[in-house]
Amino acid sequence: MNESLRNALLVISSIILVTSTVPYLLDIIKKKTKPRVVSWFNWGILGAVAGAAALADGQVPAAVLSFASVIEVMLVVILGLCYGDRRFQKIDLFCQVGAAIGLALWFALDSPLTAIVIITLVDFIAAIPTYLHIWRAPEEETLAAFILACLASGIALATVTSLALTGLVYPIYLFAANALMAGLIVVRRRAS
Predict the structure, then answer these.
(1) HSE on the CB side for 89, CA within 13 Å?
(2) Can you tell me the distance from the alpha carbon of 14 to that of 93, in angstroms, rounded to the nearest whole number?
(3) If DSSP codes are grouped into helix, strand and coil, which group holds residue 36?
(4) Does residue 191 contact residue 104 with C-beta atoms inside 8 Å?
(5) pLDDT digit string, tens, across residues 15-41
(6) Backbone phi, then psi, for 57, in 5-degree steps?
(7) Is the pTM of this model over 0.85?
(8) Which candidate, 180, 88, 93, places its Cα nearest to that of 130?
C-alpha cells in the first residue's frame, strides 16, 4: 500500500471513529442511552496512554487511532456529565490505578509494549460493566456507535505497515471489543 493511500485511510478511520459517537451522543440527549461517565473517562485516560506509547514506538496508525478514540470518548464524557450515570465504583478506581501502573511501567522499563498490554487488559476490565449493561438492557445501548467504531478500527488496522505488537495490540483489541459489543447488542435485542 502506498504512503498516500495509507495516510488517506488513516484520516478516514479517524473521522469514522470520532463521528461514530454521534449516534451515541444523540441517544444520550434523547435519554435513551446513559453512559457511565467514570468508565468513559477511564477509557479516555487508557486510550491516551496507549496512543502515547504507540507513538513513542513509531507506530503512527495505532497512535492516531488511539488519539481519535480519546476525542470520541471525551465527547461522551462531556455530555454524560449532564445526562449520564456519574456513580464511582471500585472497578473505576481499579481502572485508574491500572492506567497509572501502565504509565509507570512504561517509564520504569522503557517499554511502550508493556504499557500497551497493561492498558489493553485494564481497558477490557473497564468494559465489563458495559458488557453487563448490554446483557441486561440492550435497548439502552447505541448499536450504530459500536459498528462504526469497529469499522474505524478495521480500517486503521489495514494501514499498519509493521507487525510490531505496539502497533497491533490496541487496534486489534478496539476492533474485537466493539465487534463483541455490537454482536451482543444484536443477539440480546433479538432474544428480548
Answers:
(1) 12
(2) 29
(3) strand
(4) no
(5) 898 888 899 999 999 988 888 787 788
(6) -95, 10
(7) no
(8) 180
